[in-house]
Amino acid sequence: QVQLVESGGGLVQPGGSLRLSCGASGSIFRIYVMAWYRQALGKQRELVALIADGGGTKYADSVKGRFTISRDSAKNTVYLQMNSLKPEDTAVYYCNGRIQQKPLGRPSDSWGQGTQVTVSS
Length: 121
Description:
Elements: E1 2-7, E2 10-12, E3 18-26, E4 30-39, E5 46-52, E6 57-59, E7 67-72, E8 77-82, E9 91-100, E10 108-111, E11 115-119
Parallel strand pairs: 2-11
Antiparallel strand pairs: 1-3, 3-8, 4-5, 4-9, 5-6, 7-8, 9-10, 9-11
């Protein structure tokens, strides 16, 4: 069983910064991909950023140049550094991981419970 737990959300003024963390624990053989999604009120959940096991990254157009995803493999932790935050970044941010739990097992997606980010003056 794999558990993902997000932290670092909160209230910040426009133009400010936050750093989100997501730690994976439990039975983990290999993490292929970790990602951040977000869901604003009344909207669908959308991909914000992802990082593959080789280090490749992908970002939504709306956050390019402002957000940076990174990973500490030794700690099974993924981070999202968010700079120049805008009110439209307000959402619940969810951590996602594509994780193989055992040798010969199949990778499967795990989700965190979400952390609230509110950008407002």
